[in-house]
Specification:
3 domains; alpha+beta; elongated; 7-stranded mixed β-sheet
Length: 367
């Protein structure tokens, strides 16, 4: 890969700056694509944006930027999009700092900014070389998320269409599933979640599954298959769990759907059981109810434990003897257990407490 150092003045950078929203952002006389497909949208906070301008006004050096040089002598911002937009927006009057717009500055102050030189490396090479460089360089100001890095590698029409569904404020996926997921769209979290779910059958780690799925579909003309899958997940959740509870938000619904989507489920009975469990004081983790009613693992529910006073009372009553094996143990070697299991209606009350040795407690738990 060929890399050359250049100094670019702000006045040249901002020439013909244009932000056409979804159509893209250009600068440097129209030759610089500020927001190519693999870049994320502008996410700097006001204080970060203002810090860029403060650095320029004081003549301090900004971190190095990287531009990709194309065959037609145009460029793409590889690293430095947000610093570039911060500078261009200020000079073109999109925002002020301490109530001072660029056009209200004294002429010598304006000239100082316009003559400020940015340190930019022009990079030339194959697509794979450029994208590998993008993954390894330090992104100044705001580190890229894993999914943003993946987006840098697997560009194309499929990714553009996927971002339309999953990566924009007010996007269709956010509107459809907001009650069920905890994700932000501007850092690609919702897209990453959908990809985790649909790629699970690959049987690898989440990251490897996502990368394999994106590689397999990179050249697809659209992301309609991913969108249909996501819709199927949410519709299955709505039809299976007919009453909505706030504890449903953020559960791994895609993984649950993948496992149980073909099961025949009595939704009325399920709804009644969930209602009863919600009212059960012994169930301390209400969000675990929705997994428990499917796989019957009590660990999801974090059933309320007996307190130390109840355990001590039961230990004294038993005289330190385990009621199963009949051996004597110190209290620290025993565990408070339900005489009548919680699953069979036993409550976490003193009269239902017994102390079992560790071995007998494990044996009982496994039956």
């Amino acid at each position: 890969m060929k890399i050359e150092l250049h100094n670019i003045k702000v006045r040249d950078l901002v020439q013909d700056y244009q932000d056409s929203a979804e159509e893209g952002v250009t600068a440097y006389g129209g030759r610089l694509d500020v927001r190519p497909k693999y870049q994320r949208n502008f996410v700097y906070k006001d204080e970060q944006r203002d810090a860029v301008i403060d650095t320029v006004r004081k003549g301090f050096p900004l971190n190095v930027m990287y531009w990709v040089k194309n065959d037609d002598d145009s460029f793409e911002v590889l690293d430095g999009q947000q610093r570039t937009i911060s500078i261009c927006q200020y000079v073109t009057g999109d925002y002020s700092i301490n109530e001072k717009y660029f056009h209200t500055l004294a002429s010598d102050e304006q000239e100082q900014i316009l003559n400020y030189e940015l340190t930019v490396y022009f990079c030339e090479g194959t697509d794979s070389e450029k994208l590998e460089w993008f993954k390894t360089i330090n992104i100044a100001g705001e580190e890229l998320s894993d999914q943003e890095l993946r987006n840098a590698v697997y560009t194309g029409e499929w990714l553009t269409d996927a971002k339309r569904y999953f990566s924009k404020q007010g996007c269709a996926a956010k509107e459809k599933a907001d009650k069920y997921v905890r994700c932000e769209v501007n850092r690609q979290e919702l897209l990453e979640l959908a990809l985790k779910w649909i790629s699970e059958p690959y049987g690898k780690k989440d990251a490897q599954n996502i990368e394999q799925y994106m590689a397999d579909h990179q050249t697809d003309p659209n992301a309609s298959a991913l969108w249909r899958y996501f819709c199927d997940v949410i519709e299955w959740v709505k039809s299976t769990f007919v009453t909505y509870y706030k504890e449903m938000k953020g559960l791994p619904w895609g993984f649950i759907y993948n496992k149980y989507k073909d099961d025949i489920i009595d939704t009325k009975a399920l709804d009644k059981e969930i209602s009863n469990l919600m009212a059960d004081e012994d169930v301390t983790k209400k969000s675990g109810i929705f997994l428990y009613v499917l796989d019957r693992k009590e660990s999801h529910l974090q059933i309320r434990s007996f307190d130390k006073r109840d355990a001590r009372t039961a230990y004294q009553k038993q005289k330190g003897l385990c009621p199963v094996c009949g051996k004597h143990f110190e209290i620290e070697q025993m565990h408070a257990d339900h005489i009548i299991p919680w699953s069979k209606g036993g409550k976490t009350v003193p009269e239902n407490c017994q102390m079992l040795c560790a071995e007998c407690n494990i044996k009982k738990s496994n039956h």
